[in-house]
Amino acid sequence: MAPDSYTLAGTDVSIPTLGVGTWAWGDSSTWGMGSYDSSLTEETIRQAWDASIDAGVSLFDTAEVYGSGESERIIGRLMAADPERAAKVVLATKFMPSPWKLNVRGALLTALRSSVERLGVPKVGLYQIHGPISLRSHAALAEALAGAHQAGLVDAVGVSNYSVKETRSMAGELTKRGLRLATNQIEFSLLRRVPETSGLLATCAELGVVPLAYSPIGQGRLTGKYSAASPPPGKRGFSAHPMEVVDKVVAELRAIGDKHGGRLPSQVALNWIIAKGAVPIPGAKNRQQAEENAGALGWSIDGDDLERLDRVALSGIRSLQNRVWQHG
Ligand SMILES: NC(=O)c1ccc[n+]([C@@H]2O[C@H](COP(=O)([O-])OP(=O)(O)OC[C@H]3O[C@@H](n4cnc5c(N)ncnc54)[C@H](OP(=O)(O)O)[C@@H]3O)[C@@H](O)[C@H]2O)c1
How far is the C-alpha of 115 from the C-alpha of 88, rounded, in Å? Predict the structure, then answer.
């Protein structure tokens, strides 16, 4: 049975078992804001923001690279417009460890200062290294995170897309500097179960690291609105299995949702992740999506249904090329 919330290691910051991903906010190339998806506006985003917080889904994940900072700027405007809701929010953002950022301590502090300025907050709840590919060592990255913590700009620190070995190594380097690794943000869903079968989730549990599950509804593919006959628009490169294969997973989600009083495929897919001890952070573009996603809370699927879903889940091991550098 999953708890109602998690406390980020080394802090008293509490996060719900479900969050919101905000990559689509301000991004045109993958998610269509200002291009193919004309229904996505700052007003629909505000409604998603309000509905999520009102449902207790108060963890928001962004990154310096989302919409080249626009996702953070939009969140900053939402925070400023509604201090009462803002007070309930935990903000998580990310540092991109690009190869040219060789002075990583200075680069990370500069990037973080820009992020908090865009977000309009004195510090963030969680600061994550966006990916494991860096010219600098884990020791250097941990040192940089420690500098951010000493500067009072972050509560918790985390990583993203780290393997078992990388997670252990970074946790060790942070411990040497008096910090704890709080989170590892990974692609985990019924279209990519490999973090469970590879032992990554077990390693996180052992180290007290909360796994944050990104693309948890397969970039919309697990909602049932896309199919082989009607594939998703845009680039959406994560979990891009042939839709004929995805359709079979969605059929099982639908059957299990029907057993539970008409729960939606997306809600069952999110519930499966929560049951595995990870915190899904589905993207939401509007009020309806936010409310539907929040409907994954407050109920749970039982052991038989978990087994049924385990059987249809796809491993989702990426090609080496994708593993080397793919992020969102
Ligand atoms: N660390 C990393 O490298 C990394 C990588 C990827 C993502 N992330 C994070 O994880 C978050 C979530 O991942 P994601 O955005 O890639 O994929 P996702 O959460 O699986 O899918 C989100 C998309 O699904 C559709 N959707 C959401 N709720 C829906 C609902 N209830 N019914 C129907 N459609 C719905 C929306 O797109 P449409 O309406 O256009 O279909 C939405 O933008 C991101 O926002 C980001 O914060 C991190």
Answer: 19
